[in-house]
Design goal:
This protein has 239 residues and is mostly helical. It folds into 2 domains: 59 residues, Homeodomain-like (Arc Repressor Mutant, subunit A, Orthogonal Bundle), CATH 1.10.10; 147 residues, Tetracycline Repressor, domain 2 (Orthogonal Bundle), CATH 1.10.357.10. Helix content is 69%, strand content 0%. It has 12 helices and no strands. The protein is elongated, with a radius of gyration of 21 Å. The termini are far apart.
């Protein structure tokens, strides 16, 4: 599989039009890029297609994003930027376990409230896995990895483990992956969930909030099950 390079780019100065018009043009390009890149991939999407879909001149791409690679980067990261600062909020030692899990799932599921935008973002991530440009590696390093680490530390504290010990605990790593998987499935399998169980309605904000509460409950049950397993495996535990 050939890997494409999508370097960080510096946009040129914006054209001299009103600020609101500039922002509107940029947003149209961003949404057009998200849709077309998700449907066709980076290589097969031309700047002319992007400009036509956004109703702007081709030169606007370089004005607002530097080049097509810059627009791809913005489309990949910007629509789901609601998790900024997410690690400190989850990994707050003052939070009780249930509160930390609630904040974790809230941040994980918040994008579902953005409807078709979140679907396109997920489709673009699938596309990036199949046709890598390097951005998936960045997301793993800058977002997914740190959030996994935060969850691991949260659960580790519940078991009385220091951060280093939690990282070295294979069963705790397994538990963290399974907890995160509860939320990941609602993104990856969203269309299936909505088809099989329409009453759960992941497109409704209140329903998403209920999902958060239920996932906290399910995750806590997983934590309790791991605690019971550890007690049973402890030296001197009765058969």
């Amino acid at each position: 599989m050939r890997r494409m390079n999508v370097p960080a780019t510096t946009p040129r100065p914006a054209p001299n039009d009103a600020g609101a018009d500039r922002q509107a043009a940029r947003q149209r390009l961003l949404h057009a890029g998200l849709r077309l890149f998700a449907q066709q991939g980076f290589a097969k999407t031309s700047t002319r297609e992007l400009a036509e879909a956004a109703g702007v001149n081709v030169a606007a791409i370089s004005y607002y994003f530097g080049d097509k690679a810059g627009l791809y980067r913005a489309a990949f990261f910007e629509p789901l930027c609601g998790s900024a600062g997410g690690v400190p909020a989850v990994d707050d030692a003052a939070r009780a376990l249930d509160d930390a899990l609630r904040e974790f799932f809230r941040q994980m599921l918040e994008p579902l409230k953005h409807g078709d935008t979140s679907r396109l973002c997920m489709k673009l991530r699938f596309r990036e896995m199949l046709e890598p440009t390097g951005l998936w590696d960045e997301e793993l390093a800058q977002d997914i990895g740190p959030m996994h680490g935060a969850l691991l530390r949260v659960v580790g504290r519940h078991f009385g483990l220091a951060a280093a010990a939690a990282v070295d605990d294979v069963e705790l790593q397994r538990l963290a992956v399974c907890i995160a998987g509860l939320a990941v499935h609602l993104h990856v399998g969203r269309d299936i969930v909505d088809t099989l169980t329409p009453a759960l309605n992941t497109a409704d904000d209140a329903a998403v909030d209920r999902w958060v509460e239920r996932l906290v409950m399910y995750a806590r049950a997983m934590v309790d099950a791991e605690a019971a397993r550890r007690r049973a495996a402890a030296p001197g535990a009765s058969a």
